[in-house]
Design brief:
The chain is an alpha+beta fold and 95 residues long. The protein has one domain: 2-Layer Sandwich (Alpha-Beta Plaits). The chain is built from 3 helices and 4 strands.
Amino acid sequence: MYYRGYILVRLKIIGEEWKVVEKISGLKSTEAGENWEVSYATPVYGGWDLIIECSFTKLEELDKIVTALRSDSEIASAIEETTTLCGTKPNYSKN
């Protein structure tokens, strides 16, 4: 069972959307006992520039995902603001 989360991203520089999407697509855990990943990312229209879907088995892993985005210097330099949303139940099957 997996939780599903969404990270809304506002970029500092318009036109960098696909570059950031390529950089974060496929981002996943590398430590034993963790099972999180960025499952989807795409530019969107409106008040935000990107939406990132992620899946994780423990709520604590969501912090690892956000930290991974903020600690990568190339990604972090492109991000102005984020808002993170999380499903309330671990009912997202990856099948």
